[in-house]
Amino acid sequence: MMRSARRLTAVLLLGAALTACGGAGGAPGPAARTTAPSTTATHTAAAAPGPNDRIAGLGADWLARIPGNARQVVVAYGDGSASATGRVVLYRRQGGLWTAEAAWASHNGRRGWTPRHQVGDTRSPVGVFTIHDAGGVLPDPGAKLPYHHDPAFTPPASWGPTHRHDFDYVIAIDYNRVPGSSPLDPRRPQGEQAGGGIWLHLDPGFGSSACVTLPRQAMQTLLRTLDPAQHPVVVMGPRSTLAA
After folding, report:
1. For residue 51, what are the domain limits?
2. What is the pLDDT of residue 50?
3. Which partner for 62 in 58, 140, 157, 186 could form a disulfide, CB atoms 3.0-4.6 Å apart?
């Protein structure tokens, strides 16, 4: 009986947490399968500009929103307000200078972006969010963030084989969640209608229901690099908005 109760609890937690990541509408239809640019390989710091007192593509207002103690910033640049494709760049701050350390092609919500995310809108939320927790189906790959290894991250079989590995690794984005808890935690401080379960996770090859998705190597790099002591944050939105 106790084992059955635990299994039921895990299923309920998964359903609540994965709403933004594909659970509500299942896998997107053919029209939503917008493939990211072919540059899916990692671009290392050697190919990136040198240290700068600004983060490329961020306007002054957005730079001001980054907490003063943040030394690591993940920027998700969407290709357009209604586009599912984009690019993620990892920045490190030393002193007053920012250096781009790596970059990857990415996907985001299949209907693009919104400053007021709601359940089921299939748009990624625009904003600056802290990062505290990670987890996944696979064992900890050496993450510096607290890592919650749990088979409950396994996508439902009804989503199909395309999504089988989506949640091998995930990093929770602190949008409408309780930091310091598993990414599966279903609590929504801003209310259920505001959505939640917004993660960085493995890319199935097309737009998500609201998450930002990346190649496996990118997720492993971020997990091994993002450090709570460096107070990492993610800045995310379409390029035109972030540049304003």
Report:
1. 2-243
2. 72
3. 58
